[in-house]
């Protein structure tokens, strides 16, 4: 699969890059015709800083107190907090960065020591990828439970432009991926045509079949 990897650069910043592998891939929620590799943005301090600068531009006039990081975006979230705190309405603000825990019932929770970072706070939800919006929906349920106030949704790649009436600000969209398709598993034309699934994918990466 790796020999099919193509590099895509951000239209706004050539130093921000993702990899894409065409094929037939299955997630927990859907089937897609591309695996989007965001490993570099999640792990490289230089690229995460560049990506944070791009995402921060959408929130220069939005009051933010906490960033909830999902799907391995903690490095990016830390740089985003730093970037937001250097200018605009959040200048010199000590923005908190936190990751929820997944309990035995697959619910997102915050322990007593971190709930204070959410309760009554202006929160940005940061995800690596939003293909169907289900992860975001689950996070918003969690946010409401802990009385957090949604200030924005940010993603590295998003196939959706909004979730629950809130715009998803992303660096990459389907317009950056040639002929990107996303299907419900039971409606996948690749499955109907007998095309083998190349790999199972999630926010951690892929496992070839």
Description:
With about 210 residues, this protein is of the alpha/beta class. It has a single domain (about 1-209), classed as Rossmann fold, CATH 3.40.50. Helices cover about 25% and strands about 35% of the residues. The protein has 6 helices and 14 strands. The protein has helices spanning about 40-45, 45-55, 75-85, 110-115, 135-145, 190, and strands at about 5-10, 15-25, 30-35, 65-70, 95-100, 100, 110, 120-130, 150-160, 160-165, 165-170, 180-185, 200, 205-209. The strands form 3 sheets. Strands 1, 2, 3, 12, 13 and 14 form a 6-stranded mixed beta sheet that branches. Helix 2 (about 45-55) packs across helix 3 (about 75-85). The longest helix is centred in the N-terminal third of the chain and has 12 residues, at about 45-55. It starts with 5 loop residues before the first strand and ends with a strand. The mean pLDDT is about 95.
